[in-house]
Amino acid sequence: MILWELFEKIISSNKTLYDFVKKYWILSTPKHWNETYINKLLDMLMNIIGYYIGSSIRTNIK
Fold it and tell me: CA-to-CA distance for 43 and 28, rounded, in angstroms?
């Protein structure tokens, strides 16, 4: 999760990588490339909550 967010940050801040991925990424839309800071924080928060819930459920199944 955090690695994915770092991947997004690195790609979006490097002009060459940004242009390449924007051109060839299958699901490339402008809304994915123009995220606000608040949107990025909420994205990470929701991912953390999702991983916490998912790992709690998996732990309880065993």
Answer: 17
